[in-house]
Structure formats: C-alpha cells, structure tokens
Amino acid sequence: MKKIRIYNAGPLFLEYEVKHRLVQSRLMRELFERKGIKTNEYSIFNPIEAPFNGQLPSAETVFYSDYKEIDNANVFFFDIGNPLDSGTFMELGHVIERIMKKEKIFIYVMDSHIAISRSASGKYKGLNSPWGRNMYVTGSLDKNKIKVYSNFEEAIKAFEKDLPKILKTK
Q1: Given this structure, which CATH class describes domain 4-168?
Q2: Which residues does 76 contact at the CB level (< 8 Å), separation at least 6?
C-alpha cells in the first residue's frame, strides 16, 4: 500500500481560519483511525502545523518547505474561498501542473464563500452577481474536471468514498 500524503491548503490570516485548518487535520486523522489506517501509512501536512511555525521563518523557507510537501503529496485539500489568499492559489497552480502532466493525484477543492450560495439562488444575475472567481482559476478547474465542494464536510465525504482507490494507487 502506498503511503497517503495529504497537503491541506487554505487561508491562515484570521484566527478562525487557523482554527478551521486545525479542525480539518483532526477530522482527517479521526477518519483514518475509524478506517483502521495506521499513522505510519499516512501523513498530513498542514502549513499552520509546519515545524517552523511560532518562529519567524524567511519567505524562502516557507516557500521551499511547502513546495517540497506539495511535490511529495498525492492528496490535496484546497480552500479557495478567500480570493485574496494568493499563496493557496499558487499552491493550486503547482498541483494543476502536476495533473496536466498526468500524475495520479486526488484533489478536493472547497469554496464556501457565502456569496456563492447567494449567486446560485438566482437572485443575482451577470454583472450584478456579488461573487466571481478569476477565469484562469475557473478554467483550470473545469479543464481538469475538478469538482468544487461547498464545504469541508462535502470534500472529506468525497475523500472517504475515494479512499479505496487512493489506497490502490501506485
């Protein structure tokens, strides 16, 4: 069995975003425990839990650490609900490049921005819609048939459903 290496990306600017990333990691660990997957059979890299947090690492240290983790991961969770989080979008671009090179990876993208549900309600139309995503980002997701989930709960359910496939992937 191949080791599952998860990279969990999303904004980390506000206290609730940090707490949400930590809850996500905990829920992933609990899922593995319920499925009988031992801790040496998976790893979860959550940038907020990186060893250098609490210190003042250089931007280059942060980049290189995250870059290596992205290159080694085979499962990704991306929270793209904050359009100002350029780091998450850069990480997503790195992973899209791997997908375009036909690497076998699993990706779960979430966008829980409240304006999306308002736009989907049909109340807003066209230029009056209070939400939009960069067309390059949308195009990269569409081109690669990457589903966007409306919250982490939906994404982790999809991950749980894919787990047998993930475990068989070489």
Answers
A1: alpha beta
A2: 6, 7, 8, 9, 70, 95, 105, 106, 107, 108
